[in-house]
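Sequence design from tokenized structure. All designs in this work follow the same two-part layout: the structure record, then the generated sequence. An example of the structure record is given first.
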């Protein structure tokens, strides 16, 4: 019930290449954090929807064929490239409330994380979570 399918967490290019084994490309810490959120929050999470005909395809692991990567004119080293980040929404909650829930329950986090609050000066309508937190704090907040 709480498991993820590979197509939820990787772009179509990676999934076509590896199928469900695409999950092996992801950092285990990210998977453990996502499973903790999904289980403890108890609500459906939406990451990628491309497999069901939706338009979300680059919210998990991205590759060199993805538009968000190809459009950059600089070395793109996002945590998404390394299987260490996802963007997601939780059904029935806005992103600010999800971030608050994570913060209120951070003692249960299996690994330290980073959460994005603002993108281009505006509060995000999605939750960006990655495991590139190199501090002793459970959560580091950042803005892009």
């Amino acid at each position: 019930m709480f498991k993820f399918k590979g197509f939820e967490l990787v772009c179509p290019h990676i999934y076509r290449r590896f199928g469900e084994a695409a999950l092996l490309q992801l950092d285990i810490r990210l998977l453990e954090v996502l499973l903790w959120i999904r289980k403890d929050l108890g609500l459906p999470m939406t990451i990628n929807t491309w497999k069901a005909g939706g338009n979300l395809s680059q919210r998990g692991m991205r590759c060199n064929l993805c538009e968000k990567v190809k459009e950059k004119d600089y070395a793109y080293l996002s945590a998404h490239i390394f299987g260490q980040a996802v963007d997601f929404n939780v059904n029935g909650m806005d992103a600010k409330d999800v971030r608050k829930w994570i913060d209120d329950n951070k003692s249960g986090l299996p690994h330290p994380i980073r959460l994005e609050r603002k993108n281009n000066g505006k509060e995000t309508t999605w939750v960006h979570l990655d495991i590139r937190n190199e501090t002793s704090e459970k959560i580091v907040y950042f803005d892009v």
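The chain has five helices and five strands. We note this feature because it recurs in several other targets discussed in the main text.
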